[in-house]
Amino acid sequence: MATTADFKNGLCLEMNNDIFSIVDFQHVKPGKGAAFVRTKLKSLTSGKVLDKTFNAGEKVTTARVEKRPHQFLYTDDLGYHFMDTETFEQMPIQEKLIERSNLMKEGQMVDILVHAETETPLSVELPPFVELMITYTEPGIKGDTATNALKPATVETGATIMVPLFVEQDTMIKVDTRDGSYSERVK
């Protein structure tokens, strides 16, 4: 059990037979009336985000969730297959539990959020940045680099990323997995 004073981003709560993670919260103390906490909660099973308001000091049930390191192996009809790096056990996971699955390449390390009591996987977290090779992009037009113009580029995983005009084919780039945007070239 925890109270609203213990809220922080990433805290997992059990409510309505589901597990929610706190995405954002704000403590509000109006001039008139009691204080309350406004939150944005993301369901770890369905991915839906909902707004919920708690009274200040209200007790909530926290969920025991563990992050476990896994290595992405391959994908097939059963889903995406991951291997636990400590026990070497393999587990298939559906694509709906993976945010930005098109940025994962074979052999990449990820963290899988697992409900500690039921041992069910809840979501797959990619590292903040991944390095990918550009397999195809149109050549940039000479002299058109004064503006922040972007062009589409296909990376080795098949995802399309918008990159600056000076980035060429067969270049390693760093991609931000939180929003799928270009970050920088890798030297």
From TrEMBL:
InterPro entries: Elong-fact-P_C (IPR015365), NA-bd_OB-fold (IPR012340), Rib_uL2_dom2 (IPR014722), Transl_elong_fac_P/YeiP (IPR020599), Transl_elong_KOW-like (IPR013185), Transl_elong_P/YeiP_cen (IPR001059), Transl_elong_P/YeiP_CS (IPR013852), Transl_elongation_fac_P (IPR011768)
Major location category of this protein: cytoplasm
GO molecular function per UniProt: translation elongation factor activity
Domain Elongation factor P C-terminal as annotated: residue spans: 130-185
Keyword annotations: Cytoplasm, Elongation factor, Protein biosynthesis
GO cellular component: cytosol
CDD domains: S1_EF-P_repeat_1, S1_EF-P_repeat_2
Homology family: Belongs to the elongation factor P family.
Full protein name: Elongation factor P
Gene: efp
